[in-house]
Specification:
- The structure holds two protein chains of two kinds.
- Chain A contains 18 helices and 22 strands.
- Chain A is of the alpha/beta class.
- Chain A folds into three domains: 238 residues, Rossmann fold (3-Layer(aba) Sandwich); 164 residues, Rossmann fold (3-Layer(aba) Sandwich); 73 residues, no CATH class.
- The relative contact order of chain A is 0.10.
- Chain B has one domain: ABC transporter involved in vitamin B12 uptake, BtuC (Orthogonal Bundle), CATH 1.10.3470.
- Chain B is 74% helix and 3% strand.
- In chain B, α3 packs across α10.
- The chains are: A alpha/beta, B mainly alpha.
């Protein structure tokens, strides 16, 4: 096999992080190369560079031995490199043929040559094994299942003469039969000389498909495994393989062991993953981390607890009392609070003042006969700004002008005003700089010391190891294991997060 | 506050220009009439501003006015109902209309534009059907009731008078401003207009708040419908209130409501409605051919909105600059990216 694509010492820096550092890989003609790594290892950045979405700061990309510059998506397409996104990019109001030829319609003058798009589509649809009876050129994309849409996306790439297909987590939203169909197509394409870069968290798929595996860790090459070397242990060892110092402050745990759990979850079934029942409990003053790879169902669990996406079944108990939670108001009344994943969309109201945001959830409690109490609102805002160290020129400042860390403090402050018994946090420090991160960790630990039960979801291994008294690990919608502090290690978490049951 | 000054300045400007060119603008009868119509239009503009604050729209206001007006006249004169029963019925009808809009928009997730556009067609048709498309009137009866709309309090100088609807508008305006600015529900409306998801995640019952906004809007359209029909005395089921929703929306937007939601002041909306009515009046009084009416009003609103947007942009640029400067100052002691 000759080398088709070569990435040589590519580096990419974003403000504050070195996303890629001297990363290299080669891809042979007709090879399926899997790229694996933890969340944030640099896989997505590398793929975006290859697809022309981002440009590298240094390093070279060679195609057929020639140095190429990929400075736009169009340039990547011209070179025959196609990226198939995790979230599909089809216009689902158009037909299959219209999507396949979108932006490069065969035309005469101002008119699309309808017949040519259809014959061209039929040819590539056959290559990806789509039955013309269910997915012909004239079928509306919105009527197709996600699996078939994925195949249309691949057909689109093939029709554009792609020689390198990059697939980012292609099976993340597919059912098993759909995944199997996709694997058959991938193997078929490989046999016909198309090269494929396959990004996945699922080691089973990697084992089945990959000719070789490139492992990335912290933006660097961590190792390469040939086909016969691909085993779960090898993969996890390379993905983890580092001994970072766990800089955890020795937090004093409450001496008295509380009897009742602050939060107890019995056979909870989320609307997204109703086939799995979730069971766990969090006593007052404990910090429980929820680890897992992206898409493991962790956010869905928090949303069910908070009533945003009401649970499909099961029981939620607070201090031993079963609660009926069908909307956030119920959850708040029961003593829960949620710091959501998407700060700007779900956490704060950007075009409102700091003080208005801080008082939003306690407004009702402070009100008399429906009338706001401006004095108490101001007092709450001042108290929280002071307590959390929010850096703002004035409480009247719009939240949109604050840094990410300060915005997150506003979300926390909004809830602390209500003195919750259970605090749920989803990616509490995403997109926040190092200094503010430490401040937020200290706040969380302080709250736990005050007896608040804390359940937090994080995709950052360091965060899980740094904060958790105990960690739950999730994989594909179920809890695959529970690790007490003594057994908590990156390796143990990764084993469970990739689907190996413990015990 | 600056925004209010801008629109108030526009109002003064239009008044002064008109008065200079045609002194008759200031005669007691003309002023009283302009104030009366301003008050009536302010009522529906205040109503629609609640809906606009939630990020929605109500296109059915004019038809609701037509339905309420025709129904009221018909119940009183043809069916011989008592005043109390007739007023209660038409108010229940208008509140019910708002409730239906709110439920369709929140529970069925239909778009406000579509729901209220259908309302516009349906209520107009209903008004014409219920009255056989015959014009309705109160004749010389119901003097007491009609004085709600036509009555006035004469001032002790120059023959000037304050029309009754002005007092109704003042009461409604104060209630609306208190609701919006002093109660938690007003704050909830502003919050959900800016970011509905974050409002919901904060425990706000966003659906209920939106329904309340539509009920307020249609309810005030009902009140205005009663007053418009009493004031005109003769009600055309096919014509009463036509295009009024557009005047209401224009007044609200001129007065500072953003159609993106989350923004609005009641005083601004009232001044905005006044600008609309004064413009209309000056076109008549200056004997500008009336076929220019819509074009002139449209052009003035458009320029107002453009100026407002430009002013906002300049202000935003300034804030961004100050933010950069503060950030630069904070860099030194912390020595970390912030």
């Amino acid at each position: 096999m000759t080398s088709l694509l070569q990435v040589a010492s590519v580096s990419k820096r974003f403000p504050g992080v070195l996303a890629l550092e001297n990363v290299s890989l080669t891809l042979a003609r007709g090879e399926v190369l899997a790229v694996v790594g933890e969340n944030g290892a640099g896989k997505s950045t590398l793929m975006k560079i290859l697809a022309g979405v981002q440009t590298p700061d240094s390093g070279e990309i060679l195609l057929d031995g020639q140095t190429v510059t990929i400075d736009s998506v169009r340039a990547a397409q011209r070179l025959g490199i196609a990226l198939i996104h995790q979230e599909l990019n089809l216009a689902d109001n158009l037909t299959v043929a219209a999507n396949i030829f979108l932006g490069r319609e065969p035309r005469r003058g101002w008119f699309i040559q309808q017949r040519e798009t259809e014959t061209g589509s039929t040819a590539v649809l056959k290559q990806v094994g789509l039955d013309p009876a269910v997915a012909g050129p004239r079928t509306l994309v919105s009527t197709l299942s996600l699996g078939r849409q994925q195949l249309v996306e691949i057909a689109k790439a093939l029709s554009a003469q792609a020689r390198v297909l990059i697939m980012d987590e292609p099976t993340s939203s597919l059912s098993q039969p759909e995944s199997d169909a996709l694997f058959r197509v991938i193997k078929d394409l490989r046999a016909r000389g198309v090269s494929i870069i396959y990004i996945s968290h699922r080691l089973g798929e990697v084992k089945e498909l990959a000719d070789r595996v490139v492992v990335l860790r912290d933006g660097r090459n961590a190792g390469v495994l040939s086909r016969e070397e691909i085993t779960q242990d090898n993969l996890v060892r390379l993905m983890v393989g580092r001994n970072f110092s766990v800089s955890r402050s020795a937090r004093q745990r409450a001496a008295s062991v509380p009897l009742a759990s602050a939060l107890e979850v019995r056979a909870l079934r989320t609307a997204a993953n109703p086939q799995h029942a979730l069971n766990f409990s969090v006593p007052p003053g404990e910090i429980v981390g929820v680890a897992g790879l992206v898409g493991a169902g962790r956010t869905e669990m928090l949303l069910a607890l908070f009533g945003v996406e009401p649970a499909a079944g099961g029981e939620i108990l607070l201090n031993g009392v079963a609660q009926k939670i069908t909307r956030p108001r119920d959850a708040i009344a029961a003593g829960l609070a949620l710091v959501p994943e998407d700060r700007k969309q779900q956490g704060v109201i950007l075009e409102m003042a700091v003080c208005e945001n801080l008082s939003l959830s306690s407004l009702r409690r402070e009100a008399r006969a429906g009338f706001r109490n401006p004095a108490s609102e101001r007092a709450i805002a001042d108290e929280m700004v002071e307590k959390l160290g929010v850096k703002t020129p004035s409480p009247r400042q719009f939240v949109q002008f604050l840094s990410g860390g300060n915005q997150q403090k506003i979300v926390l402050g909004k809830w602390l005003a209500l003195k919750p018994r259970v605090l749920l946090l989803d990616e509490p420090t995403r997109g926040i700089d190092v200094g503010a991160k430490q401040e937020i960790y200290k706040l969380i630990e302080q709250l736990a010391a005050d007896g608040v039960a804390i359940l937090f979801v994080s995709s950052e291994m360091e965060e899980i190891l740094r904060l958790s008294d105990r960690a739950l690990v999730m994989h594909e919608g179920r809890i695959t294991g529970e690790l007490p502090r003594e057994e908590l290690s990156e390796e143990a978490v990764m084993q469970l997060a990739t689907g190996r049951q413990n015990g | 506050m600056k925004k209010l000054l801008g629109i108030f300045g526009l109002l003064v400007f239009v008044c002064v220009v008109t008065a200079l060119k045609e002194p008759n603008f200031l005669n007691p009868y003309n002023l009283e009439n302009t104030v009366r119509w301003t008050a009536l239009f302010s009522l529906i503009a205040i109503g629609v501003s609640f809906v606009i604050i939630t990020g929605g729209i109500d296109l059915s206001i004019g038809s609701t006015i037509g339905l309420v007006g025709s129904l009221l006249a018909s119940l009183l004169t043809v069916k011989g109902w008592s005043i109390g029963a007739a007023l209660t019925t038409v108010m229940l009808v208008s509140l019910g209309i708002g409730l239906a809009h709110g439920l369709l928009i929140t529970k069925l997730r239909l778009q406000p534009f579509v729901v209220t556009l259908c309302g516009l067609l349906i209520y107009r048709g209903l008004a014409r059907f219920l009255t056989d498309d015959q014009s309705q009137g109160f004749g010389n009866a119901f003097e007491g009731l009609r004085s709600l709309a036509t009555g006035k309090i004469t001032l002790p100088f120059g023959g000037y008078a304050l029309p009754f609807p002005l007092f109704i508008m003042v009461v409604v305006g104060i209630l609306a401003a208190v609701f919006l600015n002093r109660t938690i529900y007003g704050r909830y409306l502003l919050a959900l207009g800016r970011n509905e998801t974050a409002a919901r995640y904060s425990g706000i019952n966003t659906d209920a708040m939106k329904i309340i906004a539509y009920v307020i809007c249609s309810g005030l359209a009902g009140v205005a419908g009663i007053l418009f029909s009493l004031n005109l005395n003769s009600v055309q089921p096919s014509g009463l209130g036509e295009f009024y929703e557009l005047y209401a929306i224009a007044g609200a937007v001129l007065g500072g409501c953003s159609l993106r939601g989350g923004e609005g002041s009641i005083l601004g909306v009232i001044i905005g409605s006044a600008v609309m009515r004064v413009l209309y009046n000056s076109i008549n009084i200056l004997r500008i051919p009336t076929h220019w009416e819509f074009a002139i009003i449209g052009a003035v609103i458009l320029s107002g909105v453009i100026v407002d947007e430009l002013v906002k942009r300049v202000a935003r640029g300034k804030t961004a600059n100050t933010k950069l400067q503060t950030a630069a100052k904070q860099q030194t002691p912390n020595s970390g990216p912030s």
